[in-house]
């Protein structure tokens, strides 16, 4: 019989399996009313999920960050519910949580207008105000597939066929007559989902592949209460006045045009700012003892195949041909720096060797993801690579972190949220190499008393990485900028490094 240990250390004994909602009700009706989900032994579960063994339990409410994410995820299902009522033949694809909100990709035989979006939002409010219970049901893979096949939901069937094991038990969430599939958790009742707004629509390819059908993506935001929603909308309104695209046009800094999507035409004043930033960064690189180099704009595809980039990154690479040879326009500087390192044998006495470049890089980003200067296809990557021994890794990581914090402080960036991204499914190198590399990065952060979060499976294919997104106090939105990162490449054999033993 389960013994439930609560965050304050107190315990409750039960002679039968209990759910987080049961425990919340046992503690008090107020907590039960606020209960959205539970965290059992560190794992988020639905409020209705049964706990059969001894466990540590935290009750998740709207005051918790996880609770707000659950509200947003359930609002995505609410959006699906409303869409299917207004346009029953719509096919639903995916509806995840994103920063400050959610979206749903849908296959609809009409282009959504602003009037359609307003009608959708109105229907969502009508449904949410019914405060209906959300019913969860764990079913077999075959039952889930039959459920969605009978409803004509081909995208859900595709997800089941390609992404879910046949022995798995998918979770189905019933919103009255509407059913969706998700790992969850979700709110137990729609009374938690009253404070939302649909924001915009955009195009998105199914599975992010331009060879697939273009779907319509509907974005929304959701919050725990009306005050938080209104505050967010007010911040958005203020942020619009500071949109870099608007400022760039007003100050004649740059422009972009259809003939070169994702490429920047720098005007005189904008290019002057760009060059001044280069001068500043160069001074810091010199201070931290980096060499500056310049690699070629494109290299033979054979080289990219040897390094593993072609197998893992080819969809994002532009290519061209000349004299029966295929060349790749570089999306990153890494292989070029390795070739510079290889010119002349190096010994351990030459290490660490810090190599930096303002590299002109190009990546074939999906057209729907392009956004001003924040997401482009052609850009200058202020990039560096450090060649060092295993014993030097932690010192070099510490030096990189100091350099990043030094530059961030100049621009008023603060609240750096460090994230350690671990091994992805597609990767090179042995598990032992990954274990060592991930541990080295974690220890370096701990030694500097830098708090960090793990991003499981988000590392580069050749090694783990640290992301250092920062926030600026000068922005009314406290915008998080993904500006700096440290990537660990431990497979010197794959990158064709040579040194004298």
From TrEMBL:
InterPro entries: aa-tRNA-synt_IIb, aa-tRNA-synth_II, aa-tRNA-synth_II/BPL/LPL, Beta-grasp_dom_sf, TGS, TGS-like, Thr-tRNA-ligase_IIa, Thr/Ala-tRNA-synth_IIc_edit. Belongs to the class-II aminoacyl-tRNA synthetase family. Residues 243-496 form the Aminoacyl-transfer RNA synthetases class-II family profile domain. Gene3D superfamilies: 3.10.20.30, 3.30.54.20, Bira Bifunctional Protein, Domain 2 (3.30.930.10), Threonyl-trna Synthetase, Chain A, domain 2 (3.30.980.10). It catalyses: tRNA(Thr) + L-threonine + ATP = L-threonyl-tRNA(Thr) + AMP + diphosphate + H(+). This is Threonine--tRNA ligase. Residues 1-61 form the TGS domain. One of its GO terms (cellular component) is cytosol. The keyword Ubl conjugation does not apply. Keywords: Acetylation, Aminoacyl-tRNA synthetase, ATP-binding, Cytoplasm, Ligase, Metal-binding, Nucleotide-binding, Protein biosynthesis, RNA-binding, tRNA-binding, Zinc. GO terms for biological process: threonyl-tRNA aminoacylation.
């Amino acid at each position: 019989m389960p013994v439930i240990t609560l965050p304050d250390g107190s315990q409750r004994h039960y002679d039968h399996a209990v759910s987080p909602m049961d425990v919340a009700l046992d503690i008090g009706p107020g907590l039960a009313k606020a209960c959205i989900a539970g965290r059992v032994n560190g794992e988020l579960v639905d409020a209705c999920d049964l706990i059969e063994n001894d466990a540590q339990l935290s009750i998740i409410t709207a005051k918790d960050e996880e609770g707000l994410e659950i509200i947003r995820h359930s609002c995505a299902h609410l959006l699906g519910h409303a869409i299917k009522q207004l346009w029953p033949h719509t096919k639903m694809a995916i509806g995840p949580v994103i920063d400050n909100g959610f979206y749903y990709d849908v296959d609809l035989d009409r282009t959504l207008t602003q009037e359609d979006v307003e009608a959708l939002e109105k229907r969502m409010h009508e449904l949410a105000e019914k405060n209906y219970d959300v019913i969860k049901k764990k079913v077999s893979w075959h039952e889930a597939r039959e459920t969605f096949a009978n409803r004509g939901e081909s995208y859900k069937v595709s997800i089941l066929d390609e992404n879910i094991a046949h022995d798995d038990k998918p979770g189905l969430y019933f919103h009255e007559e509407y059913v969706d599939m998700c790992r969850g958790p979700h709110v137990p009742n729609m009374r938690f989902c009253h404070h939302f707004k649909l924001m915009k629509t955009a195009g998105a390819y199914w599975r992010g592949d331009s060879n697939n059908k273009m779907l319509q993506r509907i974005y929304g935001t959701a919050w725990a209460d009306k005050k938080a929603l209104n505050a967010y909308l007010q911040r958005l309104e203020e942020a619009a006045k500071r949109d870099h695209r608007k400022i760039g046009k007003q100050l004649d800094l740059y422009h972009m045009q259809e003939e070169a999507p994702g490429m920047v035409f720098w005007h005189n004043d904008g290019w002057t700012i760009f060059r001044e930033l280069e001068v500043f960064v160069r001074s810091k690189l010199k201070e931290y003892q980096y060499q500056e180099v310049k690699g070629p704009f494109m290299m033979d595809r054979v080289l990219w195949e040897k390094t593993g980039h072609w197998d893992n990154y080819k969809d994002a690479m532009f290519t061209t041909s000349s004299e029966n040879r295929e060349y790749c326009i570089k999306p990153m500087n890494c292989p070029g720096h390795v070739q510079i390192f290889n010119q002349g044998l190096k010994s351990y006495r030459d290490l660490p060797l810090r190599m930096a470049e303002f590299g002109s890089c190009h990546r074939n980003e999906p057209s729907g993801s392009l956004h001003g200067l924040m997401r482009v296809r052609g850009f200058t990557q202020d990039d560096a690579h450090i060649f060092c021994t295993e014993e030097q890794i932690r010192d070099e990581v510490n030096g990189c972190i100091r350099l990043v914090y030094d530059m961030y402080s100049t621009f008023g960036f603060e609240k750096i949220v460090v994230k350690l991204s671990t091994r992805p499914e597609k990767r090179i190198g042995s598990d032992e190499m990954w274990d060592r590399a991930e541990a080295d990065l974690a220890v370096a952060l701990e030694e500097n008393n830098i708090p960090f979060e793990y991003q499981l499976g988000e590392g580069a294919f050749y090694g783990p990485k640290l992301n250092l997104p920062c926030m600026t106090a000068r922005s009314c939105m406290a915008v998080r900028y993904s500006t700096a990162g440290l990537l660990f490449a431990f497979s010197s054999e794959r990158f064709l490094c040579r040194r004298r033993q």
